[in-house]
Amino acid sequence: MYQAIKTTISRRLKQIEYNKKHNITPKTTKRKIEESLKSEESLKSKDLIPAKEKLELIKKLQKDNYVYKGKLEPPKGELSKNWKTRDQLLFNSTKFGDDTDRALQKEDKTWTYFASDIAYHAHKINRNFDILVNILGSDHAGYIKRITSAVRAISKNKTNLVCKVSQLVKLSKKGEPFKMSKRKGDYITVEDLIKEVGRDSVRFMMLNRSNDVELNL
């Protein structure tokens, strides 16, 4: 507990220093979960990290021999005849124990999601945080090795990335499985759940289970 409090205070002091340096005044934002989801959809068309910053980062990683031009073999289970081999920018994640190197650019030369994630983590590292925490769904557990490799490369092994995997929630409605999809607009928010079963019931369910155990509702 003492260490957790100490770490929290340390992070807060770093954030205050960063805000002061960049003339940032934090503002409290209160909004419904539904509004947050709508905001998330609107951000899909926007790039949080400018292309110029991504390019500068990739050049730096190239200079440090973590990025190179090469070819990838077809993924396991995919037929070779359906795979187009081409020269592309690759991050050398096998250097850190990953099972394959990872593509940074698509065929049309736009950046992959992984390249954008690398730039996003570099932005956090540049703000002098020595510990980063990612919360991932269980369907993204395979992503951990490549992103931790990138953080090690960018920070020169000075920044520790902790990835916490949360299992998915299985929801039943009227005795039948209810499949949720943000793209289709079919989802139940925590606010909806609280209205349905009450605040205390939701609190009990959350506290009674670890984040790495599936939650059936």
Structure description:
The protein has 217 residues and is α/β, with parallel strands linked by helices. The protein folds into 2 domains: 49-72 and 85-166, no CATH class; 169-216, no CATH class. The protein is built from 7 helices and 8 strands. It has helices at residues 2-21, 33-43, 51-63, 113-125, 144-155, 190-197, 199-207, and strands at 67-70, 88-91, 102-103, 131-137, 160-166, 169-173, 176-178, 215-216. It has a 3-stranded antiparallel beta sheet. Strands 7-6-8 form a 3-stranded mixed beta sheet, with no helix packed on it. α3 crosses α4 and α6 crosses α7 (199-207). The longest helix is centred in the N-terminal third of the chain and has 20 residues, at 2-21.
Element layout with pairings:
Elements: H1 2-21, H2 33-43, H3 51-63, E1 67-70, E2 88-91, E3 102-103, H4 113-125, E4 131-137, H5 144-155, E5 160-166, E6 169-173, E7 176-178, H6 190-197, H7 199-207, E8 215-216
Parallel strand pairs: 4-5, 6-8
Antiparallel strand pairs: 1-2, 2-3, 6-7
Helix pairs in contact: 3-4, 4-5, 6-7
Decide which structural class fits the backbone. Answer: alpha/beta
Number of strands: 8
**Through-space gap between termini:** 31 Å
| Series of secondary-structure elements, N-terminal to C-terminal | HHHEEEHEHEEEHHE
Q: Report strand %.
A: 15-25%
Shape: globular
